[in-house]
Amino acid sequence: MDQTDRRIIQCLLRDGRASFRRIAEVAEVSEQTVARRYRALVADGVVRVRALPRHARPGDQTWFVRVQCRPDATDALADALAGREDTAYVSVTSGGSEIVCQAHTGPRHQGGSVLQRLPRTARVLGFSACAVMHMYLGSGSKWLAFDDPLTDEQAALLHASDRQQRATVGGVAPDVRDAGAPREQDDPLMAELARDGRAGVVELARACGWSKSRVSARLDELLAAGTLRIAVDLAYPRFGFHAPAYLWLTVAPGRLDATGEVLSAHPETTFAAAVTGSANLLVTVTCRTMDDLYSYVTTKVGALDAVRQVEVVPVLHRLKQAGTRLRDGRLTPV
Asked: Which structural domain, as residue segments, surrounds residue 119?
């Protein structure tokens, strides 16, 4: 990846639906070059942009599950878990004897959830599950651990519109919030945006069978109300980052929220959430090397007085991110 590719990726991480024109201004190349490079990165399985609901539907619950199994059965079981619709972020950890995955339960996930099936699986020696109580998804919660980050001036070119700024900081007028509340008829639009978060109005109108004006108006409402969040999946090893890890932290309850906000804003952080259990804060980080991971844990995490204990669980390899499989280091949509 050269500097132009890295600038394009950093722009997408800051604003996944930024226009090619705005990205071109930051990358200091032509709009055509940005479009061509982006399509090449997508085709090569390096990046995927998706638009996902910011809030769970009634009855839905997100869990993180740690599965202990026989080492000779780990890969097959992890692959089976990655192939399920109700899982995400499936990783083999702990030297190959443990699987960590995100699982979803609720009315949409019929036929027996992961939590129901795991106890009946012969290859499983044991498992534990914690429910996600709160995810830290503020405007600063982005993985941005590049060695050549955008300058303040370059970042300024990507400043969100007033509409998007209101959505990210939560200052949304009640009428806008009501208009942008999810509706059943939004399902075709949401499905297309989950497949391609950068899909344009013409493409979305064709896929949904809607008029372009209807798509444009509804998309504006959903973004303005903060109903949608833009998620950017990366094949991190392609950028030289080979040390991802789960951090299970035990934090003083009264300082849990503040600590989660601080950790979610670190450039190395890819995910942060308050969870149930004795380890009440889960953070995933992606560093270049184990030395960098050590430095992160000892200097940034170690500097937080509210953190009482931390368990560092390195990822051996990841089979699935959000709705994206990883095969031979490439992102492959499920």
From this structure: 61-135+321-333
